[in-house]
Amino acid sequence: MKKIGYVGLGNMGLPMVKNLLKAGFEVRVCSRSQAPIDAALQAGAVAAASLTELAAWAEVVCTCLPMPEDVESVYLGESGLLAGATAGTVLIDHSTVGPETNRKIAAQAEAIGVEFLDAPVSGGPGGATAGTLAIMVGGKQAVYDSVTEVLAAMGKTVIRLGECGAGSVAKLLNNQLVGIHQRALIEALMVAQANKLDLDQLQQVLKGSSGNSVILEMMYPLLKARDLTPRFRNTLFHKDMRLALEMARDCGIDTAMGRTAFVAVDAAQQAGMGDQDSLAMLLPLEAQNGIELFTDDDR
Fold first, then answer.
1. What is the pLDDT of residue 125?
2. N or C: which end of the chain has fewer CB within 10 A?
3. Which of 21, 120, 28 is nearest to 65 (CA)?
4. pTM for the whole thing?
């Protein structure tokens, strides 16, 4: 398969397109904004006139979109991908949505002979640029096998976890764990600062202890700098944490730690911090506890 369509050229989608081009695929693109389309064209892509035209041309169409309603519109809309796709086309959604959204799209795709995989990604813009994303896939084994070279061009850890929806389950759990770890880290640092520990020394000892984590290593420098520049916008994080809770409730499972983490994410969202980084939970947690991390005495 050499003809790849790509819809959604955001912080993740555009670098993923560039890696597909580097791997030798012919890529046509659609996106809401012209600037990322221009960047894709400079890298060697071709602009498609519409979603239906893109789907009719491509052997594989990948999408990476922000919200569930965007995904449904792009796939199921009157002028969407399914309106143009022909039998045998493979559709791959890299967006983060609930598994029921995946299954709804897959059922309508199957009715016209089109294949669908949910394949959400983790690793951030850095991983998208480097081609080292983790890609969590749900769908038919044979369909997955047919597009492994496409996925390998964008990710380093690519695993099929089961039937349709399995990839989205894994991605929502991953992001829920991120939220839990971020809140736990912020709270631990608050307690340490209240006890007058040197936070840099604490970080060093934790990195060599059983309390170490990827979140500690990635987020500590950002927390210290109080850097809320959006790498992953809180609006999207809020959506993912909400979907994870809904998924758990549908299973009859109370994820208490997920609920606690969501409270902090929601507080930042309600405070108008949706366009800041997911670490924006820092500020309402500080206000709640009456402490500001990394004050001048602690820097």
1. 94
2. C
3. 120
4. 0.95
Bridge partners of 133, per DSSP, are: 155
Task: Kindly report each contact of residues 105-113 with a partner whose C-beta sits within 8 Å and lies 24 or more positions away, as own/partner.
Answer: 105/71, 105/72, 105/75, 105/76, 106/139, 106/164, 108/75, 108/76, 108/82, 109/75, 109/82, 109/85, 112/82, 112/85, 112/87, 113/86, 113/87, 113/88
- Rounded to whole angstroms, how far apart are CA atoms 76 and 81? 7
Beta strands per DSSP E along 153-266 = 155-162
Number of domains in the chain: 2
Domain CATH for 189: 1.10.1040.10
Answer yes or no: do 84 and 127 share one domain: yes
- State whether 19 and 157 are in the same domain: yes
Same domain, 12 and 150: yes
Residues 24 and 113 in one domain: yes
CB-based contact 94:71 (threshold 8 Å): no
User: Which residues are marked as active site?
Assistant: 171
208 and 277 belong to one structural domain: yes
Tokens 């790498």 found at: 231
Residue for token digits 């902090």? 264
Model confidence over 8-26: pLDDT tens digits?
999 999 999 999 999 999 9
